[in-house]
Write a structure and sequence with these properties.
The protein has 6 helices and 18 strands. It is of the alpha+beta class. It folds into 3 domains: about 60 residues, no CATH class; about 120 residues, Protein Yojf, Chain: A (Distorted Sandwich); about 130 residues, Trna Endonuclease, Chain: A, domain 1 (3-Layer(aba) Sandwich). Strands 5, 6, 7, 8, 9, 10, 11, 12 and 13 form a 9-stranded antiparallel sheet that branches.
Length: about 325
């Protein structure tokens, strides 16, 4: 019996393994070794015994993570089923067909794709190019894995509304099962355009009873970000800055206010809306009788993320 070559590769020191595990996929034995020579200088190694690559580990409080390259159909099915039973995140790369049945129907012909099945029951099917999935299902799906001839079939089923996606893999290039954790806070900071939309959707961000009339109003020096009236009936010119507003921003607002005053017979106010105001701009703002409103881009992003404002946001995007 010919012996396959054995290679020991170091694994990063910051990953601590509890066990040695040996298994076989398509004739390739693999294992993770933890040395016990010294608790202060523990080294872990990955054993490779053929061109087939497979990695399995037990990491402290986490369960096993598995990566299979070009797995046999039986190994792929058993691995996928185990992943589904333990609600793991599953990444499958290979050549497949995709069939959808539900409110409509669609068929995606054979092609090489990246399929992501998440632990919350959501599904994404990506082509090799582009950032949007060509097929997808939201969280709450029930996943099933079966074999059909020499193919791996994965189904994602929803009950309300009744929908299903069937993915038939002719071949699997890469199969990865991961136990992932993500408790990081998502910090979304809006652009100046987003801040403008937020003000139009929630005018109280500027002040109570402020009523926008229009936005991107054309005047001689340029375009007014937001134009409206305050509770006293005075016209208001709002200039928005995403970062700390400087002297140039104050002078820009002053030009817009002068342009509007030349067009109307009513008092006109100018408000500079930004996260903060530079010290060099504070005295100039007061001298020109302009106002400052502290406006946090993060707060604007929160406004745009509210379900009740999304439809209005889409309206502004279409109009733009």
């Amino acid at each position: 019996m010919a012996m396959l070559p054995l290679f020991l590769l170091p694994v990063p020191d910051d990953i601590a393994y509890r066990t040695l595990e040996l298994s076989s996929h398509s004739g390739a034995w693999f294992g993770v070794f933890s040395s016990t020579e010294s608790s202060a200088f523990q080294k872990s190694y990955l054993a490779l015994t053929s061109s087939k690559f497979c990695w399995r580990s037990h990491v402290l409080t986490r369960e096993a993570a598995v990566v299979l390259q070009n797995p046999a159909i039986d190994a792929a099915i058993s691995t996928v089923r185990e992943a589904f039973s333990k609600r793991k995140t599953l990444l499958v790369v290979g050549k497949c067909w995709v069939d959808y049945q539900g409110r409509a129907s669609s068929k995606l012909e054979l092609g090489e794709r990246i399929v992501i099945l998440k632990q919350d029951g959501s599904l994404l099917v990506h082509r090799p190019i582009g950032y949007e999935p060509v097929n997808w299902q939201p969280s709450g799906c029930i996943f099933q894995a079966t074999s059909s001839g020499k193919m791996l079939q994965i189904r994602a089923v929803r009950r309300k509304p009744p929908e299903s996606v069937r993915i038939s893999f002719e071949s699997v290039y890469l199969l990865s099962v991961l136990s992932l954790m993500d408790k990081g806070e998502f910090m979304l900071h809006a652009s100046e355009e987003d801040m403008q939309k937020a003000i139009l959707l929630e005018p109280s961000l500027i002040e109570e009873e402020f009523k926008p009339i229009t936005y991107e109003k054309k005047v001689e020096p340029g375009f007014v970000d937001v134009y409206g009236v305050d509770k006293a009936g005075r016209f208001v010119v709002v200039e928005i800055k995403r970062k700390t507003a400087n002297r140039e921003a104050v002078l820009q607002l002053s030009k817009y206010v002068k342009a509007i005053r030349s067009m109307v017979n009513r008092e006109v106010r100018g408000i500079l809306a930004a996260p903060s105001l530079a010290k060099s701009a504070q005295r100039l703002l007061t001298t020109l009788s302009l106002d400052f409103k502290a406006l946090d881009p993060k707060k604007c992003a929160e406004v745009l993320s509210k379900p009740e404002t999304r439809r209005l946001q889409e309206f502004f995007e279409m109009k733009g």
